[in-house]
Specification:
CATH architecture of the largest domain: 3-Layer(aba) Sandwich
Radius of gyration: 19 Å
Order of helices and strands: EHEEHEHEEEHEHEHEEHH
CATH superfamily of the largest domain: Periplasmic binding protein-like II
Largest sheet: 6 strands, mixed
Number of helices: 8
Strand content: 25-35%
CATH class of the largest domain: Alpha Beta
Number of domains: 2
Oligomer: single chain
Distance between the termini: 23 Å
Bound molecules: 1-O-pyrophosphono-5-O-phosphono-alpha-D-ribofuranose
Length: 204
């Protein structure tokens, strides 16, 4: 049975709906419960619900055969998996943001709060700008508000979180959207079902 890692949270429902509409509905997953592993109604696939940033870990290690993850997580963690398809959902920008009116002082290391230390370092290295990375795992916007950092490197989807906290985008570093990824061995050894799923998802 093919194991599919689905991201919990804001992208999760949309991703499940895509798998449902290509023929793998699962009544149980829609119920209000705390289960983490589900078998599709037709018994052909199982779904495991994981934290979005952990999808790559499950797929890379073969605990799941395929999964759906944001390109932002792929760029940050560079997992050894195949990226098969852009699902064109969960679109957002990876951006540098800070307080409205922030003025950079190039004589000082820029304090950058982020859950993307690799992406941030690569970006500022390319500019030759010295930075001090403050790694956080959520509500990154708080860092400049509390003057713990000068800027943040984070994803911006609607821009509402920045706006409501008097922050604004200063530079866009990249684009992200949900990607279908596959474990390399699972794809190389028995990829027919994976290819068929990818083709159906692409046709949606
Ligand atoms: C992400 C991101 C921003 C917000 C951007 O956080 O870190 O905080 O979404 O979305 P917006 O532009 O539509 O407001 P998420 O909700 O994933 O939670 P987190 O703060 O726990 O990382």
């Amino acid at each position: 049975m093919l194991k599919i890692a689905l991201p919990k949270g804001r992208m999760g429902d949309k991703v499940y709906a895509m798998f449902e509409s290509i023929g793998y509905p699962c009544r149980e997953i829609k119920e209000d419960n705390r289960k983490l592993v589900f078998r599709s109604d037709n018994g052909e696939v199982s779904y495991v619900l994981v934290k979005p940033s952990d999808v790559t870990v499950y797929v890379e290690r073969g605990a799941a055969d395929i999964g759906v993850v944001g390109k932002d997580v792929m760029l940050e963690t560079r997992p050894d998996v195949y990226e098969i398809l852009d699902l064109n959902i969960g679109k957002c920008r990876i951006a540098v943001a800070g307080k409205v009116g922030f003025k950079d002082d190039p004589s000082l290391a820029l304090r950058v709060a982020t859950k993307y230390p690799h992406i941030a370092k690569k970006y500022y290295d390319s500019l030759g700008r010295k930075i001090d990375i403050i790694e956080l795992h959520g509500s990154i916007e708080l860092a400049p508000i509390l003057d713990m950092s000068d800027v943040i490197v984070d994803i911006v989807e609607t821009g509402a979180t920045l706006k409501e906290n008097d922050l604004c985008v200063y530079s866009v570093i990249g684009e992200s959207s949900a990607r279908l990824i596959a474990n390399k061995s699972a794809y190389n050894l028995g990829g027919d079902m994976i290819r068929s799923i990818a083709a159906k998802l692409e046709a949606l």
